Amino acid sequence: MNYQNMHETANFLKEQGFVNPVVGIILGTGLGKLVDEIKILKKVSYSDIPNFPVSTVESHKGVLIFGELEGRKIVAMQGRFHYYEGYSMQQITLPVRVMKLLGVETLLISNAAGAVNLNFQKGSLMLLDDHISLLPENPLTGKNIDELGPRFPDMSQPYDEQLNNLMKNAAIEEKVTLHEGVYISVPGPNLETRAEYRYLKIIGADAVGMSTVPEVIVANHMQLPCACVSVLTDECDPEHLHPVSLQEILDVAAEAEKGMIKLFKNVCRSL
């Protein structure tokens, strides 16, 4: 995906009325209800946006939304892209690039994840402090686009400290339980084996999922501050592992999402 394609996509959205958003939001698996809180000014299906991939996961709507949340102009992805869908890392991260070109100054990300840290119960939330990538590719592989960022971006603080503090303050104000930990991104789409959960715990995971890290790498490349909250939809206890269905994950996500919505709205007010 070249720089010209990114500008083509951004210019198309500007023509559609996506003008001067300051906050970008990515809504993960089963986490689309935040849209009900947005004053929607414009929405466009991914299939109608030049160069955009299309969500193939049934729980991802595939709609880009422009509107207002807590007085802030926002652009929200109702549905994201995953490596397991067969997309390249450049395709997965194109929306983040485009958000930055539209003028977004803050990126808020959500995802559904499994709790590897057994002190964290399913249905609770985890703020990402750091991550480990077990994905086989990197979205910055290939010729660097110097207009967007440096060849070797720093990743010492991938999740913005100021934004994370706003999230923690919001959790206190809204009385929402918010853990903090390390997220590991794996390719998917299968869930992990018992041995893999043991391995993930050993190397430092508190939660595991199949997204987020590519978008965060690209955001850091462009110096776009970001924060991410995981909705913990299942407990990954290798000694007491039970099969988990997508519907169970979606049901837990729908309940836990209520707290996440409170956090995102509070942070938008605080920006």
In terms of topology, how is this protein built?
Layout: H1 3-15, E1 23-27, E2 39-45, E3 63-69, E4 72-78, H2 89-102, E5 106-115, E6 125-133, H3 161-174, E7 178-185, H4 194-202, E8 207-209, H5 213-221, E9 226-235, H6 246-270
Helix pairs in contact: 1-2, 2-5, 3-6
Element pattern in H and E: HEEEEHEEHEHEHEH
User: Quick one: CATH class?
Assistant: Alpha Beta
Number of structural units classed as domains: 1
- Gyration radius from CA atoms, angstroms: 17 Å
Q: Per the principal axes of the C-alpha atoms, what is the gross shape?
A: globular
* Largest beta-sheet details: 5 strands, mixed, barrel
Q: Could you please say which CATH topology applies here?
A: Rossmann fold
Give the strand order of the largest sheet, numbering strands 1, 2, ... along the chain. 5-8-7-6-9
Uncertain residue segments? none
SS-derived structural category: alpha/beta
Helix content: 25-40%
In DSSP terms (H or I, runs of 4 or more residues), the helix count works out at 6
